[in-house]
Structure formats: structure tokens, C-alpha cells
Amino acid sequence: MKRLLIFCFPVLIISACKKQSCYVDPSSCIQTKIDSGNWKGAPTGNSVKQYEFKQKIVFVFEANPVADAASAVYDQDCNRLGILGGLAGIREIEGVDFYANARYIRTIWHD
User: Fold this and answer.
1) Gyration radius of the chain over CA positions
2) Which stretches of the chain drop beneath a pLDDT of 70?
3) Beta partners for 60?
4) Separation CA 84–CA 32 (nearest Å)
5) Buried-state track 52-76, b at ≥16 Cβ within 10 A, e below 16
6) Angle, CA 20 vertex, CA 55 and CA 92 arms, to 5°
7) What distance lies between CA 26 and its chain's CA centroid?
8) In a 3-state reduction of DSSP, which class is residue 61?
9) For 69-100, what is each residue's pLDDT tens digit?
10) pTM of the model
11) 3-class SS of residue 60
């Protein structure tokens, strides 16, 4: 039993650290974009969510998530990768279905 615990403990620590490595603080340009508020669609219901997509961290700016609102997707360097949603129901970023291939990490801001 002791050997099992000695083996399992390091495995748990390693797997926990791997998950936490995705908790990246927004870069200064992302934070500036959040603070500016120019992207918001309405006084409430706006958010910025962090995802892992195509092995990099991206941020989805959801402006008042209603049926016809589009959400802009930016990488850590503030490069706009595309939009999601809108009237056309866009699901692809860089030719890949975002929601089928992205891993939600956390909401970094909401009102």
C-alpha cells in the first residue's frame, strides 16, 4: 500500500501542474483591450474567456452574448484570429471548428 501511495503522489502532482500551466495571465495588450470597453455590446452580459486552441492560449471577447452577437477571438499578442457566432453562426477559426477543438480554461473578466 505504501508503494502505491509513493507512486501515485508524484503522478498527481505532475498532472496538476500540467493543468495549471494553462492559467496564463492576459498580456498587457489583452488587458488594455479589456479595460477600454470598446468591444462591449451592452452594459451587461459581456465577458472575456480564455481557451487553449491549436496549442496556444486565445481569448474570446463575448459582447453581450445574444443570438446575433459575434465574439472576437484574439491570441496573446492581440492578433485577431477571427470571429465566432453572429448571424451566420460562424464556428471556425483558422479553418478549424473552434468549439470542437478548443479547451475552455477560465473566464478572466465579466460584467
Assistant:
1) 17
2) 1-22, 65, 67
3) 49, 73
4) 21
5) ebeeebbbbbbbeeeeebbbbbbbb
6) 30
7) 10
8) strand
9) 889 999 999 999 999 988 888 999 999 999 99
10) 0.76
11) strand
